Amino acid sequence: MAERSFKPRVPTIQGEGIHMKVVQPLNTGGSYNNTQTAYQLSRFSGLGDNQTGTAASIAKVLGPIIDKALNQNTQTLGVWVRVWGPCVYQATQDCSGKGRVSNVADNVMYVAHNAQANCYFVGVAGTNGKVDPDHNWYDTDCLDNNVSTLVPFPSGITPTNSTSPGGPSAGNVSLGAAMGTTNLLNMQDPVTGHTLQWLLNAMKSTSATLIFAGHSLGGSLCPTLARWLFTGFNDLQAWKAVYVFPTAAPSTGDQGFVNGFSTVFPPTSITGVSPSGYWNQVIWNEYDVVPHGWTNLMNVQPYNPQNDVVWDYVKNTSIQTLYGPLTGLWGLDANLTYDAINAKYQLPPTPNPYVRLQAQMFTPSPLPPQPSTFSDFMNIVGAQHINAYDAHFGVPATVAPPRVDMVSPGPDVEARPENMRSTA
Q: Which of the pair, 417 or 388, is modelled with greater confidence?
């Protein structure tokens, strides 16, 4: 067996010392329950993945696409009307600071309103699924994998278009999460020019509910966005309720951030809602690689799919993966798999500060197949990150084919300056 290089890891204790609130479900008028509705609405934020052009031109096309999706799903979702966005962020420089313009939607956010429940929904897009390494690189390089440096929360997030609500320090978050959250807070509606912060201040009401949701990258950004905007009870009391619904999210910050988030947004159970009837907790698939980042990609005992992506690696021979063993001619597939996961395992600083938010895990049905090649492994990774959630929530596929960048480094990772590759 090959020698392991162990990296200390902060334990991810879930639920300890935190009381689970219980709330009644919202009635949005559709056949879907609350979490099915939130999941499907969050996936609509990714409907612009295949669009190219400027940020403004993509937003102009994406608005009617989201409207069509909302209008075609009124029986299941209820009647939702887009009231802000979609707003699109597009990068103008790479992670080393060199000028480089993307031509895809790097970050997307929109807000819809359901009058029956008086509910506002904030949908945050995940990693753009378009396969175009020449133009679609920002999410991978600067957000998904930008975890070597952590910045203070919330003081390390300083948007120019939104005003910090202040509040005490709440730990630290990854530089990638800070950058992505800054992008969202700087967004301005293409028609009104208003930011999300302005909209929420204008729409707040003790009779209105607010939900933040996102999948994958969107699942990691919606908690930081919500927690930056809402610092405590005084902010929350202006609304009937404020919830966060992240799915398939990698870990965003350290124990201080987890504590700060859970204090403002305590884990909450929704009466009578199944599956995964929870607010303010990460919903994750046991066999999804992405939520294993950045706490338990490998070297967490006991070795099993819940704890590790790979283990028992013997160079040039074999490896055990969460989907089953891999070998290949002269161990080629085992080596490729180990190298892919180990590259991500090495990204966080040592000791590893990341801690998963309070979470609810599910086991997919059927279980994923056993791979016979590295290509099989990658295909299963994609299916478990997208398709398995669609099946779990019982909703139809919504967006472009999955793209999981945690296991494929971006083109300019090595070009990053030293201060973007080591701990602060």
A: 388
Domain region containing 212:
21-420
5 occurs within a structural domain: no
Express each pLDDT in 312-370 by its tens digit. 999 999 999 999 999 989 999 999 999 999 999 999 999 999 999 999 999 999 999 99
Tokens of 265: 């947004």
Domain count for the chain: 1
The model carries a pTM of 0.90
pLDDT band at 234 (very low <50, low <70, confident <90, very high): confident
The reply to whether 206 falls in a domain is yes
Query: For residue 7, is it within any domain?
Result: no
Q: What is the pLDDT of residues 134-155, one digit of tens each?
A: 667 677 788 888 999 999 999 9
Indicate whether 15 belongs to any domain.
no
Mean pLDDT on 372-394? 95
Q: What is the domain-level CATH number for residue 130?
A: 3.40.50.1820
